[in-house]
Amino acid sequence: LEARLLAKNDEVAWANRTWLAAHDVVTLNLMGAPGAGKTALLERTVPALGGEVPVSVLEGDQDTERDAERIRAIGANVAQINTGPGCHLDAEMVARGIEGLAPPPGSLMFVENVGNLVCPALFDLGEHLKVVVLSVTEGDDKPLKYPHMFRVADALVLHKIDLLPHVPFDLERGLENARRVRPGLRTFGLSSQTGEGLDAWLAWLRRIRPAAKASARLGGAAP
Ligand SMILES: Nc1nc2c(ncn2[C@@H]2O[C@H](COP(=O)(O)OP(=O)(O)O)[C@@H](O)[C@H]2O)c(=O)[nH]1
Ligand SMILES: [Mg+2]
């Protein structure tokens, strides 16, 4: 049943990927535990890039419009998807979300997945890149305990570094653990509270638009 479910998801994800490539909408899937600071990161990122490129946000949560309201408050194009008991977004939900959002050609779209380090790792949404957000309050062993999430990630945001003096998170060990499961993983240590480290993250986002376009032109294997 799980294999059939994932195969069906992959088909829809492929359709999403094709649509996003045709409309030149570069899409990032933000994943991480509840409270890792995914929405806070978007609240920093969207205004910083908003003047350069249109940005849309698709918010995923089990319930409420709370995150969509936070993003709406900063003036961005946003839609909320509620999964009810579901623990992750799937490609079909994202397809419907894209229809509602109508991200313009040449834009950037962020998808904030439902908060947890397990199920979202399994579901391709048709995005270009997956980003895992791990805050230093969660412990430096999490990449080892939830390896699937870190293995599928294209980048890691090591979040809330302003709290490093107050928590026993060992930065070197955290990075080593992440790279043990995902060699070469690109990492950004940053704080959405203080803004420290944000520049490198923003610079990467500015660079990936042309890179993602090039890879979309090359195409991947259809499921
Ligand atoms: N100290 C600190 N707190 C943060 C930071 N980013 C987010 N938070 C706080 O962490 C909590 C969860 O943030 P939220 O964006 O809702 O997390 P999400 O569930 O992953 O979307 C909130 O109370 C935020 O104010 C940060 O960089 N430093
Ligand atoms: Mg959130």
Lateral strand order in the biggest sheet: 3-2-4-1-5-6-7
Could you give a short account of the major beta sheet?
Answer: 7 strands, parallel
Distance between the termini: 17 Å
Q: How many beta-strand segments?
A: 7
Rounded to an integer, what's the Rg over CA atoms? Answer: 16 Å
Query: How would the global form be characterised?
Result: globular
Name every ligand kind in the structure: guanosine-5'-diphosphate, magnesium ion
List low-pLDDT spans.
217-223
Oligomer state equals: single chain
Tell me the number of helical segments per DSSP (H or I, 4 or more residues long): 8
Describe the protein's architecture and organization.
The chain is α/β, with parallel strands linked by helices and 223 residues long. Helix content is 43%, strand content 20%. It has helices at residues 2-22, 38-50, 66-73, 91-101, 142-145, 147-152, 171-181, 198-218, and strands at residues 25-32, 55-61, 77-82, 107-112, 129-135, 155-159, 186-190. The protein has a seven-stranded parallel sheet with strand order 3-2-4-1-5-6-7, sandwiched between helices. Strand 6, helix 7 and strand 7 form a beta-alpha-beta unit. Helix 1 runs parallel beside helix 4. The longest helix has 21 residues, at 2-22. It is globular and about 45 Å long. The model is unreliable at 217-223 (pLDDT under 50). It binds guanosine-5'-diphosphate (GDP) and magnesium ion (MG). Guanosine-5'-diphosphate (GDP) is lined by residues 32, 34-40, 115, 159-160, 162-163, 191-193.
